[in-house]
Amino acid sequence: MYENEFLSVMLFFVASLLGTFYKIEFYSIHLFDLVAQIDLLTNVFQAITLNVRLLAIISLLGVSFIGIFSVFSFSSYMSSIYPEDVPD
């Protein structure tokens, strides 16, 4: 148990040093500690990871709906987008 705690403290220390001297984006590693400490965020993270397949299917359905809507809307408004009386 103490080894895991020591490793996490060392990881945060290294992330702080990298954030200070290299790039500020390394400070975002500290956000993982918030997820581990707050039970509500842990539950949300578990709900997302357990339902990845369902979320992927719903995302695919949304993308296909947007694609079909785009095709029908383009075919409906094509005459106003590309008028025929435009000179060459």
Describe this structure in words.
The protein has two domains: 1-35, no CATH class; 38-80. 77% of the residues lie in helices and 0% in strands. It has helices spanning 2-21, 31-37, 39-50, 52-76, 78-81. The radius of gyration is 25 Å and the shape is elongated.
- Listing every helix as H and every strand as E from the N terminus to the C terminus, the arrangement reads HHHHH
Share of helix, binned:
over 70%
Task: State the total count of DSSP E strands.
Answer: 0
Q: What is the number of helical segments per DSSP (H or I, 4+ residues)?
A: 5
The rounded Rg comes to 25 Å
Q: Work out the strand percent.
A: under 5%
- What is the SS-derived class? mainly alpha
Segments where pLDDT lies below 50 for 5+ residues?
Answer: none
Taking the alpha carbons of the first and last residues, their distance comes to 76 Å
Number of self-contained structural domains: 2
Give the overall silhouette: elongated
Mean pLDDT: 83
Oligomer, anyone? single chain
Largest sheet composition: none
Short characterization:
The protein has 88 residues and is mainly α. The chain has helices at 2-21, 31-37, 39-50, 52-76, 78-81.
Task: Summarize the helices and strands and which ones pair or pack.
Layout: H1 2-21, H2 31-37, H3 39-50, H4 52-76, H5 78-81
Helix pairs in contact: 2-3
Features of this protein?
88 residues, mainly alpha, 2 domains, 5 helices, 77% helix, elongated
